[in-house]
Write a structure and sequence with these properties.
The chain is mainly alpha-helical. The chain has 4 helices and 2 strands, in the order H-E-E-H-H-H. It has a two-stranded antiparallel ribbon with strand order 1-2. A hairpin with a 2-residue loop joins strand 1 and strand 2. Helix 1 packs antiparallel against helix 2 and helix 2 packs across helix 3. The longest helix has 21 residues. The chain is elongated and about 45 Å long.
Length: 75
């Protein structure tokens, strides 16, 4: 269970960093493309850029399982 919590925290941190870099604007225009952000985060978090993309857009098994468990445990 601890590994799952650590993974969820990692995913939250990656999404937070992605949001931060996505909101950087210069002259009213986004400064960085998604592809650039994925590569920067891949280096920072020691992951492949495709993995970062999957985490950001919640295409991972851990993210979908955790979200599902949040809704099913409240019943």
């Amino acid at each position: 269970m601890a590994a799952k919590q650590t993974t969820l925290r990692l995913h939250q941190d990656i999404r937070k960093e992605f949001e931060k870099l996505s909101n950087v604007r210069e002259h009213g225009v986004r400064k960085f493309t998604n592809e650039y952000i994925f590569k920067v985060l891949a280096v920072k978090f020691y992951k492949a850029s495709r993995t970062i993309e999957n985490i950001v857009f919640s295409r991972t098994e851990v993210a979908t399982t955790a979200q599902t468990s949040l809704f099913t445990s409240q019943q």
